[in-house]
């Protein structure tokens, strides 16, 4: 399945966030307890939705059911500034009733609409079977399989990623 570079990057970050929440230092699965804490603190987490949407989106992990997978596949092709409105995306899914109030809280904030769309897309991608191959990810970045073995291609992909991050307010990585 094709996804935009925006969601390609966030998908990995979201997966890491869920993995980090899942186990405590003793190896016990504490995901549900940590998600309960995130939901309780959701209002305090909202200021992070622009800088680290994947961390805030984890609050909704397990609370979204996708009803129209085909439609959701079209939403993950876009990126910031071009995302569908929450009102449109929400027609393709169901939010667990006991967490619906969190949607209302997010919508009261500037950028809340875009955050909720990002969150829904991340939930959708997380629940998708791992169909995406490395070559599809390379295609999303404009690279072909023939190019991926060439020296310097990793640097070119890194440059593209760093350019994207820079355009969205993140500082370039220092290289020494």
Structure description:
The chain has 176 residues and is mainly alpha-helical. It has two domains: 5-127, no CATH class; 134-167, no CATH class. It has helices at residues 5-22, 31-40, 42-45, 53-57, 69-75, 86-89, 100-107, 112-127, 134-140, 153-167, and strands spanning 64-66, 93-95. Strands 1-2 form a two-stranded antiparallel sheet. The termini are far apart. 23% of the residues are buried.
What is the H/E order? HHHHEHHEHHHH
Question: So how many helices?
Answer: 10
Radius of gyration: 17 Å
Rough shape? globular
Secondary structure topology:
Blueprint: H1 5-22, H2 31-40, H3 42-45, H4 53-57, E1 64-66, H5 69-75, H6 86-89, E2 93-95, H7 100-107, H8 112-127, H9 134-140, H10 153-167
Antiparallel strand pairs: 1-2
Helix pairs in contact: 1-8, 7-8
